[in-house]
Amino acid sequence: MDYLRTLGSAAVSSLVQKSGLNLPFSLGPTVSSLDGLCTLYDATKRDDGSPVSVFEYDFSQRKNLEPLAKNALRKLRVTRHPDVLKYIDAVESDSTIFIMTERVRPLNAALSERAGKGAKEKEEWLIWGLHRISVALAFINEQCASTHGNIRFTSLFISPSGEWKLGGFEVLSNPTDAAAVLYTMGSILPDANTWSAPEVKKAGWSELKQGHCSAADAYALGLLINGVFNPSNHPPPTANPPHAPPTAASRGAIPAPIFPLVKNLLNPNSKSRYSPQRFLDAGMADAGFFSTNPIVRVCVGLDNFAIGSEAEKGSLLRHVKLNDSADSFPPEFAAHRVLPSLVRALEFGGASAATILPLVIKFGNAAPESDYPKLVVEPLVKLYASPDRGTRMALLDSLGDYVEKLDKKTVDKIFPHLQTGFSDTVAVIREATVKSIILLAPKFSDRVLNNDLLRHLARMQSDPEASIRTNTCILIGRLGPTLSYNTKKKVLVPAFTKALKDPFVHARVAGLMAFMASIDCFDAEDLATKVIPNVSPTLVDKEKLVREPAFKAMELFVEKLKTHASSMVHYQVFRNAGLTDPHTARDCSHRPERHVSSISTARGNTLRQFCSWGGWGPCWVGNVFPGSPTRGLGNAEHDGWYRA
């Protein structure tokens, strides 16, 4: 079947090329033939490759369809509404009209997919869809003073976000329009009699000019509601003359609160019939079937979020938070409707940002992996440039939830905006910026890690807030092993020494812990000439909290120096042994016997005696932090940051 669809679209494309038409799209596979009026194709827009849909009206063999095709194009082009199929472009020829719209699929396909869903989930989805169509019809009837005239399954479509869209504008007409086609050509529509109102069956389509423009659409809406809930009982008996009122037994799966209103929509007397607007108002009343629907409530709240009060925003966010599991909303609705709306809401910043961002991340995790960069990462990267502190703080607090999704290229884009947090006048922002670095560090470029970042951290060690100075020292200690060799030699000792001289006791403790955690970053000469001399004053610090780790640090450093010294060459022994270059015996630290065997027997005894006495043998190997307080740095049970 897919092969035949593709073959069909290829044939159409070939014919179009031969006709000389310049199409702004590339046709894909055929999706459906809509009641023989037109053919729906998946397509891609030529200029940017975005997915679109194309409706092809071919009236080369059926000239009576030409006015309907032209009316569909004319009305769709000028009717702009969120719940109406979005027009993009069109191409006309003598025998064909191509209308390009947003990417959609027929409602019938979505109804088939939902057939296996749970009763409650399916009912909520149907009510949500009927709400969108009721809104669109109310707009056409009241604001446009027109009659759609073609409400049926094949006139309804589903967008990528799962929202119902109204199309099928072939006979949409205003009674004052001289070019109106509904009143003279309505009967050309396939199965027109099935969906027509009683007054049309009795007196013809021209009768619609005499009544309110909503009358025919209201009746068709009632038939549609019955059809989506009771597909096996469509059309209902009341649709046939003498149009007896629906009985209680005919309710079927129609929700009880909706059924009385459906009966009003199907009233055979057009003057007493409910309009789509009245049906919509009843559903949106307090405790109405629309206003209590969770998806409808979220949609309405998101549409009005920018102008809503803080109380209204808070109520909506609490509702979304209670329903943020993957099963609470249709997946396509969560990914393409809720998620983008929440991201846009973040742009307004304010106190709501701390609540919104975790929801963005949760909904983003439920989105398809291929869509995550576009739906979540790209908007979040832009938000790092926001001047709103609430938004920036929320981004930093939630960084751990999305940092794994960021690649190095993305982090490079973030850092220029992130670094402004180091100089923010609000201490909370500065501290959160410092703490965020440890998560991003593995993805920093060498230039940022060994240059730009360290300049900021050097300044943060002089921050007026003691906790920021402390956590900056802890951060440098964590970053130490990842720095380049020259940077380690140049930066670590001065940075940790500065912390040891800090008046804040916990900053001094952090300096000691950082020295111990970075012991492998120092060679023996630096330990002996730089580290120990700078650490030794803390042995007599006035605070016991500092003295205790200071002694442990000194023990650790001295132990490493002893290990190194035991492996060093003893120059005097080699001179006695007659060796002019003691460096030729470097391997003696591991296997002294190999070198001893090459020395004369008389002098060899002296060398062996020294090796035994001096402990010149294999270096001590093991954990350099036995019982060290630095084990808390980076421990999984504790995040390692200082908290006042």
Helix/strand layout:
Elements: H1 2-19, E1 25-34, E2 38-45, E3 51-58, H2 66-78, E4 87-92, E5 96-102, E6 105-106, H3 107-114, H4 119-143, E7 156-158, E8 164-166, H5 182-185, H6 192-195, H7 198-203, H8 215-229, H9 259-265, H10 276-284, H11 294-303, H12 310-322, H13 331-346, H14 353-366, H15 372-383, H16 389-397, H17 399-402, H18 408-418, H19 427-440, H20 446-460, H21 466-479, H22 485-500, H23 505-517, H24 524-535, H25 544-566, H26 571-576, H27 592-596, H28 601-614
Antiparallel strand pairs: 1-2, 2-3, 3-5, 4-5, 6-7, 7-8
Helix pairs in contact: 4-8, 4-10, 8-9, 11-12, 11-13, 13-14, 13-15, 14-16, 16-19, 19-21, 21-22, 21-23, 22-23, 22-24, 23-25, 24-25
Describe the 3D structure:
- With 644 residues, the chain is of the alpha+beta class.
- It folds into five domains: 102 residues, Phosphorylase Kinase, domain 1 (2-Layer Sandwich), CATH 3.30.200.20; 178 residues, Transferase(Phosphotransferase) domain 1 (Transferase(Phosphotransferase), domain 1), CATH 1.10.510.10; 113 residues; 161 residues, Leucine-rich Repeat Variant (Alpha Horseshoe), CATH 1.25.10; 42 residues, no CATH class.
- It is built from 28 helices and eight strands.
- The strands form two sheets. It has a five-stranded antiparallel beta sheet with strand order 1-2-3-5-4. Strands 6-7-8 form a three-stranded antiparallel beta sheet.
- α8 packs antiparallel against α9, α13 packs antiparallel against α14 and α21 packs parallel to α23.
- The N terminus is likely disordered.
- One of its GO terms (biological process) is tRNA export from nucleus.
